[in-house]
Amino acid sequence: MLVLAAMAAPAAAHGILLASTPKAGETVPLGLRVLDLRFNARIEPRLSKLRLDGPSEQDVPLREEPAASAYPGRLAATPPPLEPGIYTVRWQILTGDGHLSRGRFSFQVGGRQ
User: Which of 8, 62, 71, 102 is the most buried (most CB within 10 A)?
Assistant: First the structure.
C-alpha cells in the first residue's frame, strides 16, 4: 500500500507562463516601460533568460529589473524606447526543481503614446 501512495505523488511540473505584460497578441502604445513575465513556479533568475527581437528580427537590448527578484516566479526587464512594429519575446527559465522551460510570444507596438 505504501508503494502505491508513493507512486501517486504528483510529478514535478515544468514552468508555465501564467501572465505577461504585454500580453501575447496585444497592441501597446509607444512608451512600453517593462516586460514582465510571471510563472507558476520559482525560477532561478541567474539561469533564466529574457530576449526581445525587434521588427527586423534584431536583438533589442534589455536591462534586467532588479525588483523582479521580490517575486520568485517573475522575470522582468526594461526595454529601450521601442519603434512601432511587431516584437517577439523569447524566454527560457530554469525552475527551482531543475526543469527547463522555454517559450515565445509576440506583441505589437502602435504609433501613439
Answer: 62
Domains belonging to the chain, first-starting first, are 23-109 (2.60.40.1220)
Contacting residues for 6 by C-beta, under 8 A, at least 6 apart: none
Q: How does pLDDT run along the chain (113 residues), one tens digit per residue?
A: 444 444 333 445 589 999 999 999 999 999 999 999 999 999 988 889 999 999 999 999 999 877 666 788 999 999 999 999 999 999 999 998 889 999 999 999 996 55
Sign of the torsion formed by the C-alpha atoms of 37, 38, 43 and 44:
positive
Question: For residue 29, which amino acid is it?
Answer: P
Phi and psi angles of residue 58, each rounded to the nearest 5 degrees, phi first: -80, 150
